[in-house]
């Protein structure tokens, strides 16, 4: 974590609904998934920062993004190890590792062990769960 202590972001369901689009709410607060090849930034190749759409926490940098062929933005590492948390997901008759924002518990996606070096991980994220800020030229 960065040098500043981060506080957990807690809001009511009504507050989240007022802040987010219906699709952002469905994915981040209700653990949904956007359809492949439909969300924002799955094919974005610009340099920049991906942050949580719910609380603004920096999550991933473009330098760790890669084309996984899955139709979702994929990264091999978060911006810092404690930017995200891992949770066991037993939905859909399988066991996966769910990834959430460490600050607000927004559902972001899942991590798999079939990614490229140097980590061998594929953080397969929902595009609607993240805002992209391009680097300044």
Automatic annotation (TrEMBL):
Zn(2+) binds at residues 52, 55, 101, 104. Residues 13-135 form the MsrB domain. GO terms for biological process: protein repair; response to oxidative stress. Belongs to the MsrB Met sulfoxide reductase family. Binds 1 zinc ion per subunit. The zinc ion is important for the structural integrity of the protein. This is Peptide methionine sulfoxide reductase MsrB. The keyword Kinase does not apply. NCBIfam families: peptide-methionine (R)-S-oxide reductase MsrB (TIGR00357). It catalyses: L-methionyl-[protein] + [thioredoxin]-disulfide + H2O = L-methionyl-(R)-S-oxide-[protein] + [thioredoxin]-dithiol. Its cofactor is Zn(2+). InterPro entries: Met_Sox_Rdtase_MsrB, Met_Sox_Rdtase_MsrB_dom, Mss4-like_sf. The active site is at 124 (nucleophile).
């Amino acid at each position: 974590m960065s040098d500043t202590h981060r506080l957990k972001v807690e809001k009511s369901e009504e507050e989240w609904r007022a802040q987010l689009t219906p699709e952002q709410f469905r994915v981040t607060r209700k653990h949904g998934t956007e359809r492949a090849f439909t969300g924002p930034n799955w094919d974005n190749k610009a340099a920049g920062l991906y942050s949580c759409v719910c609380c603004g926490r920096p999550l991933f940098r473009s330098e760790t993004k890669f084309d996984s062929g899955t139709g979702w933005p994929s990264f091999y590492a978060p911006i810092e190890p404690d930017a995200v948390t891992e949770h066991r997901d037993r939905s859909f008759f399988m066991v996966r590792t769910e990834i959430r924002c460490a600050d607000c518990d927004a559902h972001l996606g899942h991590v798999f062990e079939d990614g490229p070096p140097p980590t061998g991980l594929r953080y397969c994220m929902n595009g609607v769960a993240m805002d992209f800020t391009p680097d300044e030229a």
